[in-house]
Design brief:
19 helices, single chain, Rossmann fold, 2 domains, alpha/beta, about 10% strand
Length: about 450
């Protein structure tokens, strides 16, 4: 081997080893810092926030600016404390609460945007005043636009009398009680915080701890910022697709750059946390179908306004406060679309005119398929069985038909208690990362 080439090779190996040691060690240190002051809902959530903070220091490399949503069901669950730690370690933090969209737009300008940390976002998206004066919708549009590079915020410059294109791209952290608008959560890594248990302890965070965090912030920046071009050219193998892949790609690239066990941890967090999000959506759809059956009555057709009014008046149902505001006709259509249910022009029995609404005939089949209480074991045992409506001795099920939900005095069809064990599903997409999968087999086939 040419001595000169050998020297270049040795230098390359030394740089590679140094990068791996520095990157993995820095992420480990950041992870330890975060978990010192905050109790996370899961190990995957702690890994995701660690990678997110590091990713803010390489914003010019990313095609999509991931949103981080930190939410909880009630106060005193650690949301604000987590935002404090993020603010002291991320790139160019801009902390605010209940600010105007115009102010945020003006803060983004330039090629090096700040990391926006918006606390108490629930007061904006859930407040009645904001809903009336359009503040919530403007802010939601701005946050959604900033997820993708090159999508400007348009405003009319009264002085120059011309249209002005304001940049929106930049990382953003949103904290609040309850859910954020669905379109924001769809572009976000979501961390659902919870109140600390009696045995869970954290260190008290004081201003005297800030210098150490700033030192870590500086070292993170010095490690990853010079590698922006390399990071931008990286095409990682993603365990998810579509918008979820857009959202998680910066975190996975940072993990790949850090090396160590971080690539596996990043993909595990991605699969776990996006799986939780998908499960929530599926549950919402099934809950909606069940509630629709309960409120429908004997009508063949109902207007959308009637359906929404009945849903929003169900006690303990989520439809009156769906992502901070009552469920809308668009939200209803979005939840029903996966089940093949679409609105049509209908006429209610007592109505003199037609309007958009839904037909019982379109709901009958989904009700029969999804509005039942069936044990998980039947799902596996019924695969490949004749679909003739009979329940055989080999099937294990406890079925409550939709009619029994309204007429509990009728006899139940069957109650069989044989236990079945749900087999694992072979999934190449997850097996690649050494993760047992029960949810992604469809995506892998």
């Amino acid at each position: 081997m040419d001595p000169q080439n050998q020297e270049e090779f040795d230098a390359y190996v030394a740089e590679l080893l140094a990068t791996e040691a520095t990157g993995a060690q820095l992420l480990d240190e950041l992870h330890a810092t975060l978990t010192r002051y905050v109790v996370f809902p899961s190990a995957e959530a702690a890994d995701a926030v660690t990678l997110y903070v590091a990713a803010t220091h390489a914003q010019p490399a990313w095609e999509h600016a991931t949103r981080l949503v930190i939410k909880s069901p009630i106060k005193r669950c650690g949301k604000s404390r987590l935002q404090e730690i993020i603010a002291e370690t991320c790139h160019r933090p801009l902390r605010t609460a209940n600010c105007s969209t115009a102010a945020l737009v003006r803060s983004i300008g330039g090629d090096d945007p700040p990391t926006i940390l918006l606390d108490e976002a629930d007061t904006i998206f859930g407040g009645k005043k904001s809903s009336k004066d359009g503040v919530a919708e403007d802010l939601r549009g701005f946050i959604n636009a900033g997820h993708s590079r090159g999508v400007p915020y348009l405003r009319w410059d009264m002085t120059a009398r011309q249209l002005e294109e304001c940049p929106t791209f930049g990382m953003a952290v949103l904290g609040g009680i309850g859910d954020m608008p669905d379109t924001i959560e769809d572009r976000a890594v979501i961390v659902s915080m919870r109140r600390r248990g009696p045995t869970e302890t954290v260190a008290q965070f004081r201003r005297r701890n800030v210098p150490a965090l700033h030192d870590l912030q500086k070292r993170l920046h010095e490690w990853i910022r010079p590698c922006v071009e390399k990071l931008a050219a990286t095409e990682p193998t993603m365990p998810v697709q579509d918008r979820a892949a857009d959202t998680w790609e910066p975190l996975v690239i940072v993990a790949e750059h850090a090396r160590g066990d971080w690539p596996d941890r990043a993909r595990r967090a991605c699969l776990t946390m996006t799986g939780e999000r998908n499960a929530e959506d599926d549950t919402a759809g099934e809950r909606l179908l069940a509630d629709l059956y309960d409120v429908w009555g004997d009508e063949e057709y109902l207007f959308t306004t009637t359906v929404l009014d009945r849903l929003q008046n169900i006690d303990e149902a989520p439809w009156a406060d769906w992502y901070g505001k009552p469920l809308t006709n668009r939200g209803l259509a979005h939840l029903l679309k996966p089940y093949g249910i679409r609105s049509r022009t209908v006429r209610e029995p007592a109505a003199v005119s037609t309007a958009k609404g839904y037909a019982r005939a379109d709901l009958t089949d989904p009700w029969g398929r999804y509005v039942t209480s069936v044990t998980a074991s039947q799902t596996d045992e019924s695969a490949g069985q004749p679909c003739d409506g009979r329940v055989t001795d080999d099937e294990s099920a406890s079925v409550t038909s939709p009619d029994l939900r309204k007429h509990p005095d009728r006899d139940a069809v069957t109650d069989v208690t044989d236990e079945q064990v749900e087999p694992a599903i072979d999934c190449p997409a997850c097996a690649r990362w050494g993760i047992a999968c029960y949810e992604h087999a469809g995506a892998a086939s």
